[in-house]
Design a protein that fits this description.
By secondary structure, this protein is an alpha+beta fold. It contains four helices and seven strands, in the order βββαββααβαβ. The chain has one domain. About 30% of the residues lie in helices and about 30% in strands. The longest helix is centred in the last third of the chain and has 15 residues. About 25% of the residues are buried.
Amino acid sequence: MDPLIVKQEDKREVYYSVYWSKFRKAEKYDIASAVPSVGGVYELYYMDERKKLNLMFIDWVWYGGLRSRLRKITDPELIYEPRHKKILETHDCYYRYSLSNSSNDMKDVLYFFGKTHFPEDDFEHSGRYDTIFLEEHSPEKIVTL
């Protein structure tokens, strides 16, 4: 299946299925040729010394598209935040993404992931639904929920 966000609505409830792309190593030339310049949700991970993937970012992008955002946040020369820059310089990083043409759907998906991974942070959803459900599908069978 293509890396897409699919939804089913039932009155004031929504069921999202996030079909992720394959994990790819974050290299600028690969990103330039492999990632589309459209909207979507992405995750960026770094691999630690124990070969464990650690989530660095999960976000959605609309204007500019996935390609330019991933290119920017994975290039240590373009990063000014010291901790982020050091991770990029010393660890292999990997990303995956899922495409969407709806900014409101991406807000809902990010809200669900955000509340799951970072419950202390404040996330907003689109306000269209009372209840949001989500399931992940990954070619590598790696899911985070």
